[in-house]
Specification:
Length: 353
């Protein structure tokens, strides 16, 4: 439905988005994830028509919307947009804010659409109010309804939940996802919040330094990172040194011989760095490696421990919180890693993956 083909954007002489490509299917909900300044909002602006391209193309339903020297006006793209600050018209009521993009429809059609959308976003009783009379969550629902009113092919959301408190942010993002799925509208969310992207998205694109590092499902980003940059950014975890063993799927480490779910392409004896997630480290009933508790973060049902190994390496372990281990206490651990991720140590040292 949407094709982003090797787009490049720059401000004056600075390239801020460099040869980024991905595609969005009908009904897919996607996210652009990354730290501040990585280029994700610039990509959103390029799709919306607010940012020209110096290379590449933006194609929506087989129509080229942007390429160098060509920029279809934003209002001609049939793309809706929800902004971080909601951008509601303060002098218009909730109903009239939603009605704003429906001026080409008859009055009866407008009234029908507004009524349907107010019911959809659960604001049917406050259509007469003005933005300053609404809570942040209500304003966000109005902004969503206004963007959906013209039945866009694609909805763009630029960190729309960032001004809300944590609990409302989580609940509203899931409600918005349900609404988009019900309407079968494709969407792209810009966020720096991993958990929000994981809960909201079918596909996620991780950006770093203006380049797309990986476009994949949340599951694959976490369990199958394509390079060290993705592995460092997504989730939690630690790297420990290892050496490729005699079998192509084994790695010898200070935690013992780890068996991966793939055949590694490096020859036997190659030095590697192994990524271990907190859920890969478990307590050992019999034997195991002795580790010392250095830090702990309690989160209710589980506690995240930072553990020091005898060599000085560190790993993280997410353990049930019914047993409270003290700082400097020792525990016996082993590994249960279904997805064993490794990177060449030489490549890591040279900043590649």
């Amino acid at each position: 439905m949407l094709q982003i083909h090797e787009i490049q954007c720059q401000y004056e002489s600075d390239i801020v988005v460099d040869k980024v490509s991905f595609h969005v299917n009908d009904g897919d909900i996607c996210s652009l994830l990354g730290p501040s300044g990585c280029g994700k909002t610039t990509i959103l602006r390029a799709i919306a028509g607010f940012q020209p391209l110096t290379h590449g193309q933006v194609i929506l339903r087989d129509q080229c919307l942007s390429q160098p020297g060509k920029l279809v006006d934003p209002e001609q793209r049939n793309i809706g947009m929800v902004f971080q600050d909601y951008a509601l018209f303060p002098h218009l009521s909730v109903k009239d804010n939603i009605r704003f993009g429906l001026r080409k429809q008859s009055s009866a059609q407008q009234n029908s659409t507004v009524k349907r959308l107010l019911e959809l976003v659960q604001l049917e009783d406050i259509g007469h109010r003005y933005p300053h009379e609404l809570s942040g969550g209500q304003q966000q629902r109005v902004a969503l309804a206004r963007a959906l009113a013209p039945s866009p092919d694609l909805l763009l959301l630029d960190e729309p939940f960032s001004n809300l408190d944590a609990e409302l942010r989580k609940r509203l993002s899931l409600e918005v996802r349900d609404i988009l799925k019900e309407l079968k509208i494709s969407a792209i969310l810009v966020t720096h919040d991993q958990q929000e992207a994981f809960a909201f998205s079918d596909q996620i694109g991780l950006l770093h330094g203006g380049q797309l590092q990986q476009w994949d499902t949340p599951f694959n980003l976490y369990h199958e990172p394509s390079n060290r940059t993705v592995a460092d950014f997504i989730g939690e975890g630690c790297f420990i040194p290892g050496v490729i063993g005699g079998e192509a799927n084994t790695i010898s480490t200070e935690l013992g011989t780890l068996i991966g779910n793939r055949a590694y392409h490096w020859p036997q004896g190659s030095p590697v760095e192994v990524l271990l997630r907190p859920d890969d480290i478990v307590l050992s009933e019999l034997g195991g490696i002795t580790a010392t508790v250095e830090k702990k973060v309690f989160s209710g049902s589980a506690t995240l421990y930072t553990l020091s190994l005898p060599t000085g390496s560190r790993v993280e372990a997410l353990l049930p919180s019914h047993r409270d281990y003290a700082i400097k206490e020792t525990v016996q651990i082993t590994t249960e890693a279904d997805h064993l991720i490794a990177f060449s140590r030489e490549e890591v040292l040279h900043g590649a993956a």
